[in-house]
Each structure stands twice: as C-alpha cells, then as structure tokens.
Amino acid sequence: MKQTSHIVDSEIQDRAVLVSLVTQKQKKNEELAAYSLQELVKLAETAGVLVLETMTQNKETADTRWFIGKGKVEELKARIEELGANTAIFDQELSGAQVRNLETALDVKIIDRTQLILDIFAQRAKTREGIIQVELAQLSYLLPRLSGQGKNLSRLGGGIGTRGPGESKLETDRRHIRGRIDELKAQLEEVVRHRNLHRERRKKTGVFQVALVGYTNAGKSTLLKQLTQADVYVENQLFATLDPTSRTMELPSGKEIVLTDTVGFIQNLPHDLVASFRATLEEANEADLILHVVDSSTDMRNEQMRVVAEVLEELGAHQKEQLTVFNKIDLCTQQEKEMLSTEGDFLKISAYTQEDLERLRIAVQEKLMGENKLFRIPAEKGDMISLVYRIGDVLTNEVDGEDMLFQVRVNKDDYEKMGYLLAAYDQQRAQQEGLDGRGEIY
After folding, report:
1. Is 263 marked as binding a ligand?
2. What Gene3D superfamilies does the record point to (predicted)?
C-alpha cells in the first residue's frame, strides 16, 4: 500500500482511493502493472480528482463478486473512512454486478478505468463530432451495466462518472438509451459523410495529408503548433486535446501539405471509445504519411509504441508509410538517447528546436515527394500541367515542340496516378484525332 497524500480538501468534490488488481498473469510483468497504476493516478488528476492513496491487491484471478476479494474490500473500506474519501477508482474494468456489490459494501462512488477515460473525454470534447462520439461511447458502456449502476448514477453531487449524457433517464429507461444510441449513430454517420467529402476534395486537389499519431502526452499538439504556428491548446496532461485539428504546413520546397493532430492513444483504451472515434481516428487511415510521435523521455516508450501499433492495426492503417519521431529528446540523457529503437525510419528531435523542426520538414518532404521522374505533357493540357505542380515538386520544365517536359520529384502513388491519367488522355486523343499519344512518363 502506498500513501500519496493525507490531505482532505472539503472543496474538492472527488477525493479518491485508487485500486489496482495484479493477477498471476500480470505479475509476469510487474513493471507494466506499476506503470498502469501510475497512469491511473495521472488520469484521475486530469479528471480533477484529488488522489488520497493508491492500493494494490495481488490475486491469482479477479473475484467475480468483489473483484479484489472480500477481505481486501474490508481493508479498503477502513482506509476510505480514515481518509475521508468519497470515491474508489479501479484500474481495471468492472462488471455491473461488481459495481453494485462494491457500492453496497463501501458506500462511495465506484469508477473503473474505462469510465474515468470516458469522463475525461466528455470534459475535453468541444466540437459537435467530438460530443456525439463521447456520448455514444458512454451510453454504449453504460447500457449493459445499468443493473449495477443504480446508486452510483443517482448519487448527488455530480463529479466524475456523471458528465456527458447525464443521469435522469439512465436508471429507468433502457429503451430511451437504445433510441438515443441509434440517434447518435445516425448523426455520426452524417458527420462521417461530410468528413469523407472533405477527404475526397483534398485528394482531387492533390494535397498531401500527414497524420500525427501517438500515445497521449507524447507532444503531438506541440509539434502541430511549432510546425504550423497553429493556435492549438497545449498542456502537459493526458488527452489535453481531443478533437482532431488540421492545419497547413509548408515544406522546404514551398509545397503545402495538410497536417492533422489526432486523439492520443492509451493502454486499455476502451473498446467503445475506439469504435465511436473511428471516424476521427481514420484520419490516420486516409493519410499519405503517418508521423508516429513518441515520448522518448519515458521509460515506457516501447510499451507505448506497442499500444499505438496495435490501435493502428485495428484501424487498418499499420501498412501506411510511417516515420517515427522520437520527441522530447532534450529531456533524455545520452544513455537514454542511445537506447532508442533504430528500427525503420526514425528521427530524434525536440519540438522546441528550430533545427530539428527543419530536419523533420525535410524528412517529411523526402517521404512524400519520392524520386525524380520525367513527365511529357501536351502543352494545351493545362489542367494536367497544373496537377503536376500540385502533386509533386517541379525541379525543371522546358518546351519540346508541342509538349512540355517536367522533371518532378513525386511519390510512387501519385506517379502511378499521373501515369493512369496520361494514358487515358493518350487513348482519348488517339480515338478523336487518329494521332499517336504524346502524354508520357519515364
């Protein structure tokens, strides 16, 4: 048992004891279990909770009735009364029956890790899309647990676990909740439709899309702000920003791309949350390049990278072109810098160093623009000439009879797309005028 504070402030609504169950399976990686509890403390503080103490229970498996066992519940009750706590937060997900039993025994609000994360998201959501997604995730989480949430939901005073959809109908009307879920899904589908239209427009204009992904608090929003001078909220806390933000970034060549900051990942990210935020997270799936931002100053960076890789795989974005950006390198010792993974394409930077930001811009440009290619385009085909300038970095251009020759640095996908367009034009011209086609790439 580790005590973190004995201070009780009557003006702080939520005063909590944090509880973690370490099973036989988890004991094989005690470092990860300890990190999960540390992360729970940060999550609770982010939600505005005063953490009074943390408690760990080692048990072969979870108790189906009491989760941590009847004896540990009695010990927890004694500590809650001694410290004056009004909330118990568990590091794992609880069933409705476990919540009901723990509430009866402890007579305090019971919150699990999933509900805590959902609560933080409810605080952070600002846009219509974000608010819809959070409410949908909360209702999807609560619906199968209503039988075990009665006292918890009706407990006076609000605070964590009650933000978002509210509590007036949750206890009594399952049909109301199911109807609301259907309504939210329909609203979200409309949002997704609009987002897809915007994506298609961006694709047609040939504008590159780059997505910042990474574990929460890895520094994605800071990078977005430094690279684009965007007016975005930056704070050293978990899930400081929730809604995706897209800004224009200029590459060294002068070409502009769209850089999007996505919601941060975290271990044991609630399944309902991943499902509800799929439209937002799919910004990574639609990107031409993914910048995987890693907090290089944390000892758990490898675990955090694994979590991000798993979520990307779940979204189907794991095969996208990626560049790993080891951020916060200024906070690392020389030994820590040498321990950073050197697999795949990577860059070690500090978001506050202009030289490092320029190196990142160059690396992004090289990833996106690809190799030098030669395009031959009929001079009268102004729309194709314009497209060449949009999709690539034009190095040279010259006139050759009725054609224009362009030396362009362009990536593989756009090179192949341009080849398809020129071939189609070639065929159309030959059919109309009986001439040999003159649109070529080499």
Report:
1. yes
2. 6.10.250.2860, GTPase HflX, N-terminal domain, P-loop containing nucleotide triphosphate hydrolases
Within 8 A by CB and 6+ apart from 209, the residues are 199, 202, 257, 258, 260, 283, 286, 287, 288, 289
Coil, strand or helix: which one is 210?
A: strand
Q: Binding residue per annotation — 328? A: yes
Residue 29 annotated in ligand binding: no
> What average pLDDT does the structure give for the chain?
81
241 is annotated as contributing to ligand binding: yes
Same domain, 6 and 23: yes
Same domain, 363 and 378: no
Comparing CA positions, the residue from 218, 237, 353 lying closest to residue 291 is 218
**DSSP β-ladder status, 87-90 and 322-327:** unpaired
Q: Is 214 annotated as a binding residue?
A: yes
Q: Which residues pair with 427 in a beta bridge?
A: none
The reply to whether 271 and 157 lie within a common domain is no
Does 261 count as an annotated binding residue?
yes
Pair 324, 291 in one domain: yes
Statement: residue 261 has pLDDT above 80: yes
Q: Is 239 annotated as a binding residue?
A: yes
| 437 marked as part of a ligand binding site | no
User: Is the confidence at residue 330, as pLDDT, over 50?
Assistant: yes
216 is in an annotated binding site: yes
Contact 57, 69 (CB under 8 A): yes
Total domains present in the chain: 4
Please report the pLDDT score of residue 77 as a whole number: 96
Is the pLDDT at 237 greater than 80? The verdict is: no
Residue 174's φ and ψ, nearest 5 degrees, are: -65, -35
Cβ burial of 77 (10 Å; 0-12, 13-18, 19+) is middle
Query: 368, 400, 433 — which closes off a domain?
Result: 368
Distance CA 282, CA 262 (A): 9
- CATH number for the domain harbouring residue 389: 3.30.70
- 215 labelled ligand-binding: yes
Q: What is the pTM of this model?
A: 0.72
26 and 82 inside one domain: yes
329 is in an annotated binding site: yes
Q: Domain of residue 134: give its range.
A: 126-186
Query: Where is pLDDT greater, at 113 or 435?
Result: 113
